[in-house]
Amino acid sequence: MIYILTPDKKVVAVLDNDGGLSCPFWADLHVEKMVDFDSTYTFTAPADRDESQYLVVGNYAALVDMDNDIQLFRMINVADGFDSNGKTIVVNARNEAIFDLNGTIIRPHTFTGMMAADAFSFILQDSGWEMGTCDIISSIDFSIDSYSTAQAALHTVADTYSGDVKFRVEIQGNHIIHQYVDFLQKRGTNHGKRFEYAKDIQGLTRTIDIDNNFATALIPQGAADSVTNNPIDITSVNNGLDYIANDDANRQFNPGSDKYIYKIYTNDKKTTPAALLADAKVQLAIVSKPTITYDAQVILLQMMAGYEHEKVSLGDTVGVVNKDMNPTLTVQARIIELDISYSDHSQDKATLGDYVPLQDVTPTMVQKIQQQVKNTLSGMDLSNIKVELAASNGNTFKNGQGTTDLIARVYNGKTPITSDLRPENFVWYKMDVNGTHDAAWEQAHVAAGNTVTVTAADVTTQATFECDISI
Known about the structure:
Elements lengths: L1 E4 L5 E5 L10 E8 L5 E8 L13 E5 L5 E14 L2 E10 H7 L2 E2 L2 E7 H9 L5 E5 L4 E6 L3 E2 H12 L2 E9 L2 E10 L9 E3 L4 E9 L7 E5 L22 E2 L1 H7 L8 E5 L6 H15 L3 E9 L17 E6 L6 E12 L8 E9 L6 H15 L6 E7 L11 E10 L2 E2 L9 E7 L6 H6 L6 E5 L7 E7 L2
Parallel strand pairs: 10-14, 15-21, 17-19
Antiparallel strand pairs: 1-2, 1-5, 3-4, 3-22, 4-7, 5-6, 6-7, 8-12, 9-11, 13-14, 16-20, 17-18, 20-23, 21-22, 22-23, 24-25, 25-26, 25-28, 27-29
């Protein structure tokens, strides 16, 4: 549901896909990011409805987000045209808070012993927005040294106090009565959600890099010597050597070489050789390890029946697991972007960031349990196995467009055992209307696990998909 408001922020129309007489909307996307507090909303609606007269630049759209908060967007770009649905209007909108903050100027100011809530309120005072929830209680000295927008100043405050920001409004009757900015220690929670291969991870890349900023030896340089004016070094406290090295890293990543991979490390805040040496040892421990980065493409199953417990919000801390990678991928990450379509939740996705590798430990007891599971599966009576298929976006493709995820849930009698199976245990079949198998499709989905994606291109007129279990 989308509320449409006039410039005086009065609700004058509602768009709703309830199947009744309401004006519908489609192709909508709400993108919300942790970085830059960015929040935008795009949607398409018919141009020949009474409500369409309000879809104009300067009006507002409000929606209830996945946290049940109301977010307000200003329509900044409106285009009309036509497509297969007839005459349409495409609306691009930006969160009203960002629009207002970018139009508010903050003059240079020094904050002395300022509490977070007071600093935040100072930035918001002329923006039309007010402090909402603030759970940060620290007091810090800092300053804004030049003229800036309130949006930029808000970033300075958020970075200074290490907090996260959220915008929301309250509607009473048909008017907005409050516009809040929340300032939180950490947006989101950690409720144990794990994105896993063959369930809700579409793609996953782990990149190990020793090209950028990698070294097996450092030559430290400190502050300027008061006599020679040259940078101090560590020779006087390091057995006459001006470098420190990591021999283990050099043997592993520079094998067969009789020299180290050197880099100069400079820290002009270190004024003694001893302090410089201690600092350089910390830095060497960092640069003598490869840089590991991750890129995961995940889907959200939370709107599907049976997956409500997998709901996530922006800022949540989640696990990412793929035991088929070598070494096993087990990392912790944070949801830094959510893309939500309220008209078609099959398009929902999340972007992960702030990855932290976790040690994958398999204690003896867990190994015993895993072996018991393997033994149980190998001796299982397959006649008692039942497979149920669910489609994330229905089983009909309109106008040759769309995608849906087929998800297999496996039961031994009434006991769910999907999580006990490996990807290769799932055998997928595709048949045309005459019952002929699509060998190429089936081969492409060998060991695909319990979830496969079906596109309109996979279905010309009619196709049947099945999943069997091979133990």
